[in-house]
Amino acid sequence: MTSGLWERVLEGVWVTIQLLVLSALLATAVSFVVGIARTHRLWIVRFLAGFYTEVFRGTSALVMIFWVFFVLPPAFGWQLVPLWAGTLALGLTYGAYGSEIVRGALAAVDPAQREGGIALSFTPWQRMRLILLPQAVPEMIPPFSNLLIELLKGTALVSVMGMGDLAFSANLVRLALQESAEIYTYVLLIYFAIAFLLTRSMRGLERKLKAGVGKAPRKKAAAVRVPEGSGVS
């Protein structure tokens, strides 16, 4: 490919990374807010959080992008640029999946830990902040890592809005070259490289968080050789 076409692809990579970071931040915030709300003692809070989760898990991310970009502007009299429309649609959609990860991890904490917090007269927020979350967050990292990779692949959907992400840029290059195999092979490798870096980063974060709560894998003790005739069996 010529340098001009490579510049187009690199611009698409940058747009994809921006969209991934912004939508991941929104999805993370939504995941924790809704996930914690799913464990609230008030039924109305649990109901509203569950309703949100079911609605956004039961709708297509592609249709949600169309809805945010084409339906919301006439309804409220303002227009979102493609980047913010994509961030909102993807963040809310994948945040619904993430909320179930948060809820499940909190529910998996040993009930004795909760009882200990109650015995110490901790408020519900103190129990959540000091006892439950420090133990639950390390267990959330592997499923969150998978969700992040799915979000990366979901960013390609914003190309339907004409947003110049990696998928959209690759299609422009394909039209210019009249060749599909070369450009889409490069695109596959780029997506794989980004996903690989994300996976390794999340594994490092998981090890760090587990070490902080004493769950880091222990190294096997080296075998000690006992001299013959020592009387030790």
From TrEMBL:
<dbReference type="InterPro" id="IPR010065">
    <property type="entry name" value="AA_ABC_transptr_permease_3TM"/>
</dbReference>
<keyword id="KW-1133">Transmembrane helix</keyword>
<keyword id="KW-0813">Transport</keyword>
<dbReference type="InterPro" id="IPR014342">
    <property type="entry name" value="Ectoine_EhuC"/>
</dbReference>
<keyword id="KW-0812">Transmembrane</keyword>
<keyword id="KW-1003">Cell membrane</keyword>
<dbReference type="Pfam" id="PF00528">
    <property type="entry name" value="BPD_transp_1"/>
</dbReference>
<feature type="transmembrane region" description="Helical">
    <location>
        <begin position="49"/>
        <end position="70"/>
    </location>
</feature>
<feature type="transmembrane region" description="Helical">
    <location>
        <begin position="183"/>
        <end position="199"/>
    </location>
</feature>
<dbReference type="InterPro" id="IPR043429">
    <property type="entry name" value="ArtM/GltK/GlnP/TcyL/YhdX-like"/>
</dbReference>
<feature type="transmembrane region" description="Helical">
    <location>
        <begin position="12"/>
        <end position="37"/>
    </location>
</feature>
<comment type="similarity">
    <text>Belongs to the binding-protein-dependent transport system permease family.</text>
</comment>
<keyword id="KW-0029">Amino-acid transport</keyword>
<keyword id="KW-0472">Membrane</keyword>
<dbReference type="InterPro" id="IPR000515">
    <property type="entry name" value="MetI-like"/>
</dbReference>
<protein>
    <submittedName>
        <fullName>Ectoine/hydroxyectoine ABC transporter permease subunit EhuC</fullName>
    </submittedName>
</protein>
<feature type="domain" description="ABC transmembrane type-1">
    <location>
        <begin position="13"/>
        <end position="199"/>
    </location>
</feature>
<dbReference type="InterPro" id="IPR035906">
    <property type="entry name" value="MetI-like_sf"/>
</dbReference>
